[in-house]
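ok so for the tutorial part 2 we go from a plain amino acid sequence to predicted structure tokens. step 1 is just haveing the sequence, like this:
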Amino acid sequence: MKLGGDLRIMKRGGIKVGFVLVALFALSGCDLIKNSNLMDSFKRDPKPAESIDMSERGFGKLAKGEFLAAQALFDQALQTNPRDVYALFGKGIVLQHSGQLVQARQVYEAILALRPGNDKQLLVINDLAPQSVRELAGLNLSLLQSQGVSNAFGPPGNPGSAAPAAPSMSARIPAAAARAPALPRRIAAPAKPMTPGTSVADTNVISRFETLRKLRDQGLVTPAEYAARRKRNIGALTKLTSPPPAAGLQRSVPSATQISQRLKAIGRALELRAITIRQHGAERTMIIDGLMPSNPKISAAPALAPKGLMPAAAAVRRIEMLKERGLISDAEYGKEKAAIEKILAPKTPVVSKAAKAAASAKKAPSGGPKPAVHLASFRSKQAATRAWTQLRRAHRSLLGKLKSEVTRVNLGRRKGVYYRLIAGPFKSTAAATQACRRLKSRRQYCDTAFMSGG
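step 2 — the prediction. this is what the tokens look like for a chain of 454 residues:
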């Protein structure tokens, strides 16, 4: 096992100090060892002159792939000078190589706590410009902390995405990156339904679209990438009017914050030339394809149309929520709602005049959801009740004979709970649509809806 790169010697203040070319891809493993006294060791009197030679020799051993010997030298340097940030950084590399990630994080956190100046620098692979130890420690720490995102999207991957194999490490990358054991796949905790009647699977789908939008807003995906991936998978939101999306979008994924942090970390690693363009592109594509594939190998099965008024009413409430969260446009909402209502529209049978007369004489059965109109939304039930009294008085000719119903709707963490004021019932959806048209002409918000038939 051999570290790529050669040992570079730099002169600082007349003293020779060895710096190995260092660049670490985020590593994995969970073999814990005790290191509770790491920060306490900083209280001892430092002897920097005596630790320089041992740190330089330690990096020399690292360059040859002799990790145990390197660790022994770094430990000796730290016993002499606990504030030797070069020895700390070298020890962090060794700990990562051996899979001791908890202690590696502690070492990098210790470097940041020491706040080394910009004069404390290391050379990075493929980059002739030295970088500060503090920045490199922060980079390695962020890569370690966000590694679970790549594991969550890695093989066996989301069936909707073609996750590429992990990027192979260049010969100039430390062998530690290629040899460390892999972390167990860390899957996000099951999401809670956003609104009553919305399944956990649907909540996961919505989370993916919102995460993709956040990545676009942060500049982590381009507008073109966002548009292409959204267009290919919009069928997960508008199920009746769009082609089936990629399979597997109903599965949970890491949070938007975790994904954002990982993309930023590997982006910074690319800037420092700690990873190659190919490695960065491979992992970035794997993450974004795992979130929302643009060219999935497997598509989901076509969605089933709602059968009956109750499922249809739930489908309408769902797309209303999607529109209010900004996940679908007004045009997409209108098209999907029309498709739902078309399914519910009774088919005109070919019957005799006598049968038509008999059917019209029958009274419509009671019970079940009835066509209605949605007039407004409020933060409290009391406000909705007061508004009904005012609206009924203001539009007595249209609303005077109707009943009111207040329904509670949870629009998620960002918007919270609203109470919708529903008025009805109407004899048909067409009658409710006509009433809405007349109310809108009076500058009153209105949209067709359903209310309980009780």
